[in-house]
Write a structure and sequence with these properties.
Bound molecules: protoporphyrin IX containing FE
Number of helices: 15
Largest sheet: 5 strands, mixed
CATH superfamily: Cytochrome P450
Helix content: 40-55%
Strand content: 5-15%
CATH topology: Cytochrome p450
Distance between the termini: 50 Å
CATH architecture: Orthogonal Bundle
Structural class: alpha+beta
Number of domains: 1
Amino acid sequence: MSFHDVDLLDLNIHIDNPEPLYAWLREEEPLFWDQHNEVWAASRYEDVIFISRNTDIFCSKYGVVPNIDLDTWPDDAMINKDGRDHTVQRALVSKGFSPRNIREMEVRVRELTVELIDKIAGEGSCDVVSALARPLPMLVMGDMLGYTRDTSDMVLDWTDTYVAGGNGPQHLTDDIVMAFGSFVMFHEELMESRRENPGDDLLSTWMKAEINGERLTDEKIMYEHNLLLVGGSETTRHTISGGLLQLMRHPEQRQHLIDHPEAIPNAVEEIIRWTTPFIRMARHLTRDHEMHGKVMKAGQQVMMLYPSANRDPRIWDRPQEFDITRSFSKPALSFGFGKHYCLGAALARMEIKVMLEELLKRLPDMAESPEQPSAFKPGCFLRGLESLPVVFTAR
Ligand code: HEM
């Protein structure tokens, strides 16, 4: 099969069995020129590492979404910075995401998880996405940002709508623009109230912070605020729902985790590899660079295809098998690699672990609904389940 004419920003190409495409790219065109979008794509594990590591050749400061230009769509968040600008901006909040801080948050995350499970435990059925996987990451972020419970629900509706902007400018709709506008207005009101009543939440941390002796502008804080919401919400959701789907389809592996809960952290790593929620991040070339006999020109963009790297047979033994006992001599690239390695990785791992621990204890016989099939969400930025209807013995 040949995919020479593939449009890598098509909304369905990565969703429904993309492996034949990825296998073709890795073997035949490891550096592929997507002529529809005029962007390169790298699909092998080692190439994704190389691009992420060499920030002097592959930079982030012109944006990390293909064909979205920061002059037209400004975004001053850390993800779009290089070098010292990036280090300084990331350091402002990195303490909040340290392993120690995340360990301390575990009790609260468990409380929230149990509360969500208790709401549906008597029902005997639910949609895992809307009842569990979607609300949990937002409630956790809401705590870190000092939101009230109602606020978390409202913001989640907006971010769910406008995150689709990451699919690219050709997929932009009025709904996306309006939802982002609502978020910006909400952010401004929140800043006003925090000026009067500062707390120990992340927003207050940014408001007190200085870079080179100067306070951060409200706009910069808005972009960082937005990055945490977009980075931490749908991604973690898709790993939780996608991981549960795999465990329901591999009952012997699920039973192993019920009998050996100490094996859950390794299962979390496999779930993160298997689900790989971000399809790609992009970099701009700062100078010409040759790879696999082709020259990428200064100013062009290259996308790193994380789901393909996480199935690269050069690295992974039996890459197409879901195996919670897999040993990881190298990390999956779902959280990226290098300087921009996901700030929320420890938090996401902990949320997935806690959800698995509590669900396997409380609803151990959860199974896919025989009547309603699960559905994936179309997209070329994020991939994951839109709904996952399940049944279980009511408690
Ligand atoms: C399973 C869940 C998650 C996945 C798969 C994921 C994936 C990623 C990836 C691939 C990057 C690298 C971007 C790049 O190299 O350009 C990244 C960066 C980032 N992520 Fe996550 N993420 C997850 C959860 C979270 C959470 C829970 C948060 C925060 C609450 C978060 C916040 C961030 C931030 C702030 C960055 C930018 C870091 C930087 O530029 O230095 N992420 N994430």
